Amino acid sequence: MGLECPKVAPMRREARIVRWWSTLASSVLVATLLVVSGGAEQTARTAPVAGSTYLCSGYSGCRSAGYSDDGYGANNGRMYWLMYSGHNCTNYAAYRMIRAGMPNSRPWSGSGMAYNWGKAMKSITDTKPAVGAIAWWDRYHNGIGSSGHVAYVEKVVSATEIVISEDSWNGTFHWRSITRSSGRWPSGFIHFRDVKQVEPEGPTEPTEPEQPVDPPITNTAAPAITGEPQVGVPLTVSRGSWTPSPSSYAYQWQAGGVAIGGATGRTFTPTADQLGKTVTVSVTATKKGLRSATATTPATAVVAKGAYANVTAPALDGTPMLDEELTVVGGSWSPAPETITYRWRAGGKVIQGHTESSLVLTPKLAGKRVSVVEVVKGAGFANAKMPSVSTEKVWEGQIEVTTPFALAGKPELGEQLTVAPGEYTPADAEVTYTWLRDGVAIPDAVGPTYVTTAADLGAQITVSAALSRDSYLPPAEAPLAGLEELIRTRPTVSLRPVGKRRRVAVGIRVTAPGLGPVEGRLLVRFGTKQEWVTLDKGRARVVFAPVAPGVRKVRAFLQAGQTAYGAVERIPVRVLR
């Protein structure tokens, strides 16, 4: 297996590599990591890579042999250039460049994986080794795995032999000698901070690890996480308190003690990957001229399953009739669920095999109520459902009127009106009639016939037919039949003319069934003379004079009104000389 080392905090692709390595690491941990026992670091025995020679292993083991780690063993709990801390080739190489005078900020944008270093910094990368340069291996080059590798060049023995120091993910710290012919030679050398080579006089006595000379920033109040540790619910971290005041901060969220790839902001929303794990945040404070410091928040409670919130309730669209289709519409959730399924029931029993949002109504569903429940699911979230929505019973069809209904009879007081039924399907549907006066139902008038009353005078009489049949919808519109004319009464005009010398006096009385005193105007004529008179409580009087003697007819004409027809009356009268 090729050497795999780098871990980088902020990139999504690297987050996937982190998860792959976390799984791989658990299976090889005993064979590759240093073992801590009783506070003393023990050196794991590591087989030499073919074509290269290990000069030492482990921080203390190398220091005891006279090979320095430049203080990294005492400071590897921090992240440099946003690489993951601890045993990690990229974090160690970044540390050495910062120790050589570079700032603690990555000098390129993009991935920090080892295979990308030489590509991102191609302007200062070549094949010539130099002390202080970064030896760089591209992925799958000379026995290296998919992540690539970087190391620090400690010595250039010749153009074909170098000595490097390195650290590795899930491995340990080494010094190693490599020859060009070994098949382990780097892909290139990145010249960030080359230094003049000084020949060592030989192994030195063990010394204490070197420490950064800059004074540190001090954390005076630990940062803290606020928010509910639940999938889908944002968490926020405070910066804590520091002295002196930092100029910038960096954040790294962890779940179960493992860094979360890409989670480097002040807020983070847990996903299904963090379900059942505690969450912490490491806050690194930085200020120019001071040594950066890192403080970690207390752990949250374990991340619980998320909860879906219903935004709008679903509804059923469609007519509950055989061969029609019902469709669930309008339901929405926050956040959007991964899957939505539907549970259909008819008559309270589950309709097997139907989980989609629509259902075609088949004959076996006739006469039953159909209901549906919307169920949502998603990784890391508790299943949720809305209360069911249901239809009326499923109809076999709808009654259809093929021939209109009609109403026969005279629009007159006391006349009988009769419904002439139309035609409809199915033909055995039941019919119920309701008689209406100016659109208002007439009490107790529900048969196929109706005799008009005084209350109907001046009104429009219609009849509505309600059609019903078990398992059938009524017609879209109830049949309605009516008379075109208003209901009226027929009045009687009585004349009492009295002839005198060259004059005629006429008394007039008008009566009508169903009415009280008749009001209105009459035209009264005698010979060539005529007068319009107005009835007062059904009575009027008119006098014609002078008129020629003789026998002639008095004629009266009553105008038709809203409640009464017109009427005419004629009667002879003698005028004296």
Overview of this protein structure:
The protein is mainly beta. It has five domains: 12-190, endopeptidase fold (from Nostoc punctiforme) (Alpha-Beta Complex); 218-296, Sandwich (Immunoglobulin-like), CATH 2.60.40.2700; 309-395, Immunoglobulin-like; 398-482, Immunoglobulin-like; 492-575, Immunoglobulin-like (Sandwich), CATH 2.60.40. Helix content is 8%, strand content 38%. The chain has five helices and 46 strands. It has a seven-stranded antiparallel sheet with strand order 3-8-7-6-5-9-4. Strands 23, 24, 26, 27 and 28 form a five-stranded antiparallel sheet that branches. Strands 15-14-17-18 form a four-stranded antiparallel sheet, with no helix packed on it. Strand 7 and strand 8 form a beta hairpin.
Question: Helix and strand layout, with pairings?
Answer:
Blueprint (H helix, E strand, L loop, with lengths): L11 H21 L2 E3 L2 E3 L9 E6 L1 H6 L7 H4 L13 H11 L14 H7 L4 E2 L7 E4 L11 E10 L2 E6 L7 E6 L8 E3 L27 E4 L3 E2 L8 E3 L3 E3 L4 E8 L2 E2 L7 E2 L10 E8 L6 E4 L12 E4 L2 E3 L7 E5 L2 E3 L4 E8 L2 E2 L7 E3 L8 E9 L6 E2 L3 E5 L3 E2 L1 E4 L2 E3 L7 E5 L2 E3 L4 E8 L2 E2 L7 E3 L9 E8 L3 E2 L6 E3 L9 E9 L2 E9 L9 E6 L2 E6 L4 E6 L5 E9 L8 E9 L2
Parallel strand pairs: 29-38
Antiparallel strand pairs: 1-2, 3-8, 4-9, 5-6, 5-9, 6-7, 7-8, 10-13, 11-12, 12-16, 14-15, 14-17, 17-18, 19-22, 20-21, 21-25, 23-24, 23-26, 26-27, 26-28, 30-33, 31-32, 32-36, 34-35, 34-37, 37-39, 40-41, 41-44, 42-43, 42-45, 45-46
